[in-house]
From TrEMBL:
Family label: Belongs to the DEAD box helicase family.
GO CC terms of this entry: cytosol
Native source organism of the sequence: Pedobacter yonginense
Segments traversing the membrane: none
Domain Helicase C-terminal: 228-378
GO molecular function, one term: RNA helicase activity
The UniProt record lists the keyword Hydrolase: yes
Record keyword Hydrolase present: yes
Keywords attached to this entry: ATP-binding, Helicase, Hydrolase, Nucleotide-binding
Domain DEAD-box RNA helicase Q residue range list: 1-29
Designated name of the protein: ATP-dependent RNA helicase
Amino acid sequence: MNFNDFNFNPDLYEGLMAMGYKSATPIQEQAIPVILDNHDLIACAQTGTGKTASYLLPVMDKIMRAKDRHNNTLILAPTRELAQQIDLQVEALAYFTNISSLAVYGGGDGIAYEQQKRSMRDGVDVIIATPGRLMAHLSSGVLKLEHLQHLILDEADRMLDMGFYDDIIRIISYLPKKRQTLLFSATMAPKIRAMAGKILNEPQQITISIAKPAEGINQQAYIIHDQQKQALLTDIFKDGTYKSAIIFASTKEKVKALYKTFKGLGIKADAFHSDLGQKEREDILLAFKNKRLPIIIGTDVLSRGIDVEGVDLVINYDVPGDPADYVHRIGRTARASTKGTAITLINGRDKRKFDNIEKLIEKEVPKMALPEHVAAMEISHVEEKRPHQNKGKKKVWHKKKPKPTS
């Protein structure tokens, strides 16, 4: 379906053509008409399917036709990185229009907070916000949303996972009952459906490609001990084959440790975690997006907050606990019908997790042979015993040389 079939405002259409949009993706083709017809919508679509444009384009078209545009649209997002990403996309699509937007999130200084207050008091067309910071502005009485026409919840499943349910319900209590509500989620768990039943009015439903990685991703996995992981990473990056890579670890402590390892090896990389200041995080993302930084290391927060084309490698240093997070992580590569590689490192504790991932994606991921020098590494093992056997005894360490993985 071609975008001129939607009869968007000419200035908006010029913006999306300037961004290189050609034909609509399945989620855009199905969601845009529903939104233009003023229906509430619950859509299940993973990252990388074009879902952001599927709600931005029709809502922005409606804004340009609206009489009252004071704080017209509110978009809730789970992280500041995603809020920033959505705001950038609004700015790009609105280049030839007079649509204004504001990203509202925590972590900034007092000046940024005052600028947010002033902009919201004056009124903007689109507010993109994280729930916690928006709730602070609503509670202070600065932000008025009685004229709001559209509420959009992006990555609703992630917001609930992060404990934002109560904030979302409180935010909705400040909104007019007569509004259009759009809920987008990568999964449709019972808690999502329960919330949708409370806040949406007779919604249309769309489901697009639930939890299936893009065809262009070359998925690989290694059965490996934790003590071999850093050696394997060194081997993967030593010849400079991969120009742009993301490494996902389970905790910020591991992210920091990997950063120190790469720095010691002289491999250019940077760590992205919550202990950094907002300006530092923005600088890292910008350097990575502009190809000045080849490797970025982060946790799952990064998997939904970064949208960069040209990432040719994603590494799961740890297997994610939620199979849907695996899809989000590896979805950072092979975007826009390109090719990419996703490598997952599986230790003994994570085998069951990876079995669940393979069930979800309905595919067995090839298990690769470790390089000989990595397979031959000596591994320290703790002698595992039942709790009552260990009582009063120290852990026993011994050396064992594993057989090379075939």
